[in-house]
Amino acid sequence: MSEQTKVAFSGTKEQEEKLIQVIEKHKGKDGALIPVLHEAQEIYGYLPIEVQEIISENLKISMSEIYGVVTFYTQFTTNPKGQYKIAVCLGTACYVKGSGIILDKIKEKLGIEVGECTPDGKYSIDATRCIGACGLAPVLTVNDDVYGRLTPDDVDGILEKYM
Ligand code: FES
Predict the structure, then answer these.
(1) Nearest C-alpha neighbor of 63 from the set 79, 51, 75
(2) Could you state, in chain order, the average pLDDT of each consecutive group of 10 residues for the chain (163 residues)?
């Protein structure tokens, strides 16, 4: 991960209280960690180190074990999502029509990698599988907006809409 993608943690007291309740609900049960991590990610949107520490302390599970689980399962993320979630389809139809080049251009413009978020919290980039819009390939989405039949030259105009 590049240095500039470190977004300051800004969890609220309410979020922490909710997390503690979740931990209390699962504490002492076999396999408590995975459901706690799922619910923690729903509360915060991601699993930063600060959240992992709260879980570690309250579930009495080591940070290394928690980190191992978080990094093993692809459904968990330690990076926040941006206000604008950009997702570029890398499914076959989109890929053969150049979505990889579009993705590279977005990464270069925003200075972040796939799975990362800009330091101001505004944009994050993900690569997705087929989203069922192959007729529009290559496709990307920004939150609920879908853009299709793209060329790399369209990238600037799309990003400008969300400035
Ligand atoms: S492969 Fe991209 S929408 Fe199907």
Answers:
(1) 51
(2) 60 95 95 97 93 96 96 88 94 97 97 92 93 97 96 96 92
